[in-house]
Amino acid sequence: MDSPVRAQPSAEMSLGHVRWIGFATIVIREYGRIVRIWGQTLVPSAVTATLYFIIFGSLIGRRVGPMAGFDYRQFIAPGLIMMSIITNSYGNVVSSFFGAKFGKHIEELLVSPLPTSIIVGGYALGGVIRGMMVGLVVTAVSLFFARLPVMHFFAIIAAALLTSSVFSLAGLINAIFARSFDQMNFIPVFVLTPLTYLGGVFYSVSMLPEWAQRLSFANPILHMVNAFRFGFLGASDVHVFGAFGLMLLLTVLLFGIAVQLLNRGTGIRD
Amino acid sequence: MLALSIRALTKTYKNGVHALRGVDLDVEEGDFFALLGPNGAGKTTLIGIITSLVNKTSGSASVFGFDIDKQLERAKSCIGIVPQELNFNQFESPMTIVVNQAGFYGIERTEARARAERYLKQLQLWDKRNNAARGLSGGMKRRLMIARALMHEPRLLILDEPTAGVDIEIRRTMWDFLRDINARGTTIILTTHYLEEAESLCRNIAIIDKGGIIERDRMSNLLRRLNTQTFVLNTRQPLAVVPPVTGFEARLVDDHTFEADIDKEQNLNDLFRQLSGQGIEIVSMRNKVNRLEEIFIRLVESGATPKAAAAAAAVIAAGEARG
Fold first, then answer.
1. Are the C-beta atoms of B251 and B242 separated by less than 8 Å?
2. Nearest 5 degrees, angle CA B153-CA B159-CA B165?
3. CATH no. for residue B169?
4. Using one digit for the tens of pLDDT, what is the confidence trace for B130-166?
5. Is the CB of B121 less than 8 angstroms away from the CB of A2?
6. Is the ipTM of this complex over 0.85?
7. Is residue A122, in this structure, part of any structural domain at all?
8. B67 DSSP β-pair partners
9. CB distance B108 to B132 below 8 Å
10. Cβ of B104 and A5 within 8 Å?
């Protein structure tokens, strides 16, 4: 081995600078992971959305007729986009963070000077990026099957960003607690999927009996899907501002919980 | 200045295991320091607490004056860690791993790439920089962790068994590399099971056992305290019985080998003189065990209590303070 260059004492860098570069590094690494395994991260949702459009949109949809005053394919398109955003944001962070725990390379971050809020923020933004990328892919697929008007552009962007933030953070919390691959998959399979299917992706809740409607309003995904649909179609089953308030509240709450859990070392430190 | 200062550090795991029982330890800036102990003694827990991979139960620790409770970010900026177990993403390339690690310490990518080239070349990994890390050999993976730990040019480098499973040739080149790093100003704390490694590299030493420091001294002082050494001597002529050597304890091992115990007050010339007088030719000779290993085993087997060791350490420290 050659003679090493002098190891200089660590320069006095501002903590703000360290945090910013560290945050950007986590996000770049997460983005790199999404792109590197694009066959697993970007393609499956496009295939699933295509199948949904063929089966529910074109084959069954013809018999369903209009829904809430819109062509059925138009009605389900925002819901399908949102469904892909939810599952991909969640899935990205849960698998990336749990993989880092399992492979022990989460220690690279834990020994670094980055505060936990930056680590949480970096992973969450990675999930948001995947959600947005997949959302764009599924939107492109949707345009082959349905004409999608844009009634409120900023509502679309805000609903997509907030929803993916909520589920990225939820995925992170799942990964923090998970001790095995089974535990990593439990929430997506037994909680997330049912809530998504019952979240008004394929139907308007106004079709449901009164008690079922009331029960549906307790499902946050219903509010997210409807806020997103409002952006495209200008129609919603829920109060749109209330939906945005809920998303914002959940984002702040889950961020705080994730930071607290990592500060305590839950699932990562003895 | 103290690179590391630990006071009354304790750690009790949830299962009730007391991994550390009130450890006090100082490491001077610029030192090459050995932290030795048997498996389960508390070495990795101690390092884990310093690097925030393990939550302490009580006590305090500071790195270059930065308290890990009050100025954790500053303290962690000073530390580079080479852990015992592989802990990098095996699917990433060495280049990606070290550049990202630099980023976690606030080093911009242009500078990080320059440093990556420097350290990967020095540690003979440059040719493999774009290969997936899982394809590297065991020795290469160890060197990759050293390169990664050096990316932010830490003031304190902690190496937890860095040469475990590395062949002798690579191990010796790693020693040279670490000596150079230390000579250029980086404080190094080394844990190792190769006591020859600690004896060769380190100037000061602490031995930890059952969660307490049982010995803390200069390496040279510690080795001087060894009262008896056992040498293994190989003879040219076959031996039927152990050669009679006055004043020495000797035992026959086989027909060409015997062992002799040499006290601190005795010298080897006496032994050789007696053997030459009997016409016995010695063709080779070696220490039966490494000197440090012998002291280490004695200390650990004697079951010195942390309290007694602390008192002994205080006496040693007072002696050092007197000059």
1. yes
2. 125
3. 3.40.50.300
4. 999 999 998 899 999 999 999 999 999 999 988 877 7
5. yes
6. yes
7. yes
8. B62
9. no
10. no
